Amino acid sequence: MHHRADIEATEPLLREEANTVVNGHTKYGSQIPDRSASWDFPIASWAQATTYGEGKQLLPQAIAHRGFKAEHPENTMSSFIGAVEVGAHAIETDIHLTKDDVVVLSHDPDLKRCFGAKEKIIDCDWEYLSSKRTLREPHVPMPRLQDLLEYVAQPSLEHIWIFLDIKLDNNSDNVMRLIANTMASVHPGDRPWNDRVILGIWAAKYLPLCTKYLPGYPVSHIGFSTVYARQFLKAPNVSFSILQKSLLGFSGARFMRDVRRANRPLYSWTVNDTNLMKWCVQHQLAGVITDDPKRFRKICEEWDDEKEPKARQTIAQWLYTMYVWVLIFFFSRPFRRKFPETVEQYIQKKNIRAKAAETVEEL
After folding, report:
1. Could you give the C-alpha distances from 249 to 91, 140, 223, 276, 279, in angstroms and in order?
2. What CA–CA distances, in Å, run from 70 to 79, 308, 325?
3. What is the mean predicted confidence (pLDDT) over 13-39?
4. Where are the transmembrane segments (predicted)?
5. Tens of pLDDT along 248-300?
């Protein structure tokens, strides 16, 4: 597998002022004050529960999973445009890197399932990947992160925000650096990228990299284990995007309670059954990540708390949920071995740097 050597950055790439010219290229900064003295993450106030139509009740936002996957090839511009057209509030998409360091949007690390080719994305250059077409009609190409950013930067689409699922297959330092480079290369319009992009991370090792390369961006922990996820309650303002099956049962109820007490947004994935969509509404989540944002939006637009019975799982859904719980139990330990870094280590490092900065100021 191709990897470049990790490159140390003396300054976060997006701390520059907007419209800075570097080596003949315009770089668009985060347009925020210097946060070098703070490792806290901002709250994404724009990614909370919202109202629909003339309703007054706050309901979960409709977040399109890989775009409008139910009716379009996933993670393509056709899917993203389709999601916007049916009223999705946000687009969730997945990050991978090419051999020549282009940030592309694909859930899988290889081309087999969606494009019918055996190669891994990291082993292909962008010129080759751009020539491939999806197996699913209408046979469209894989987009880059740059393409999605340019699309949502249009004045009429500045209300749309993006949830980036940063896959663990990539070299962690490289992927964060290249995401920052891509953000810096696309003009965001009137609404800066840090005000409409959430960095979704699976492991604690990415927390310092978010601070290093993309300071001032909100961060969300993506996960399947509420046990592993709990440690992120110690990281200031980190939100949660959790597998919906993990939120069911006693353990899930306790986790939701604690997240709510900490005033953190909670999103759930991937929710496609009508009764489970209603379950998410009744449990007051901030957003629902779904393949079918059109159906979820319709549920919210017609929602009436007084008339809606309590949502329950079917027997088949409960059996599947228990099967998923077993998989989580067996998969959690190897995940922790592969990614042993903890939020506590991040906080300790943060505190050491803060004390060092105070000492320097006193000298």
Report:
1. 28, 41, 17, 14, 13
2. 9, 25, 25
3. 52
4. 315-332
5. 999 999 999 999 999 999 999 999 999 999 999 999 999 999 999 999 999 99
Q: CA-CA distance, 292 to 88, in Å (whole number)?
A: 9
The DSSP letter of residue 74 is T
Interacting residues of 94 by C-beta distance below 8 A, sequence separation 6+: 66, 75, 105, 106, 107, 164, 165, 167
The set of residues, in sequence order, having a beta carbon less than 8 Å from that of 39 and lying 6+ positions away, is: 208, 211, 236, 346, 350, 353, 354
Are residues 274 and 302 in contact, defined by beta-carbon separation less than 8 angstroms?
no
DSSP state of 143: P
**All domains of the chain in start order, with CATH:** 58-362 (3.20.20.190)
What is the reported pTM?
Answer: 0.91
State which H helix or E strand residue 257 sits in: helix 249-261
Whether the pLDDT of residue 35 is over 50: the answer is no
**What is the per-residue pLDDT for 20?**
61
Neighbours of 320 (CB within 10 A): 13
Q: Which residues of 73-94 are buried (b: 16+ CB within 10 A; e: fewer)?
A: bbbbbbbbebbbebbbbbbbbb
Query: Which residues, other chains included, contact 60 with Cβ-Cβ below 8 Å and sequence gap of 6+?
Result: 49, 267, 280, 281, 284, 285, 286, 287, 288, 296, 300
Separation of alpha carbons 325 and 301, rounded Å: 32
Sign of CA dihedral 203, 209, 213, 219: positive
Indicate the residue type of 156.
Answer: S
81-121 residue pLDDT tens: 999 999 999 999 999 999 999 999 999 999 999 999 999 99
pLDDT score of 14 more than 80? no
For position 11, what pLDDT does the model report?
41
Q: Which residues are 91's β-sheet partners? A: 64, 162
| Single-letter residue type at 4 | R
